[in-house]
Amino acid sequence: MPKVVDVEATRMRIVRATWGIITKKGIQSVSMRRVASAAGCTTGLITHYFSDKDELVTHAYKVVLDRMIADATLRVTQESSVREKLLAAVEAIEPSAPEMKEFTVVLINFWAQAAFNSTFAARCRQDYKRWRRLIARTIRQGIDAGELRTGTDVRALTDTITLLSDGLSVGMTLTPSVYPRRHRHTILNSLLQPYLRQ
Known about the structure:
Blueprint: H1 7-25, H2 32-39, H3 43-49, H4 53-77, H5 82-92, H6 98-114, H7 118-144, H8 154-174, H9 181-192
Helix pairs in contact: 1-2, 1-4, 1-6, 2-3, 4-5, 4-6, 4-7, 5-7, 6-7, 7-8, 8-9
């Protein structure tokens, strides 16, 4: 009787091995042979699921983004006020826990390579739109609920929050002690204050 293979579990084993290489040695060190060794499988098994390194790395990045955005979306639904929703969204993707630190290093590596790789760049643009849509939707809900000023520039505030989130991701990865949770909340609260109805 042929062995039953859990396809998704196998793909995730390969993805986790890829994350491990990226976080320890950088995306340029990823190769099918290295990933196979880290995953405890053959290169043939990897090429069964991923045609080349770019497809493998892009998928590994996509899994990170999917999880981050899903976590942020869930956190937003669990809060009642727009201020708490936006705080929760930003906090959900911050590298404050070990797994999120790994995810952030994968993202930073992917962003850097996107400057030279059109496939990576296209993926970044697509996924960044998803993150921006979540923030923009939350802001519009805040306006509709009367929590944010009617004249709030949704695009400008979305840009400001997403850029702050990117900056915190880098800052918390390089100098985590500089950005304790209370300070991060203070920054975002200060940013939101002019937009809140008094």
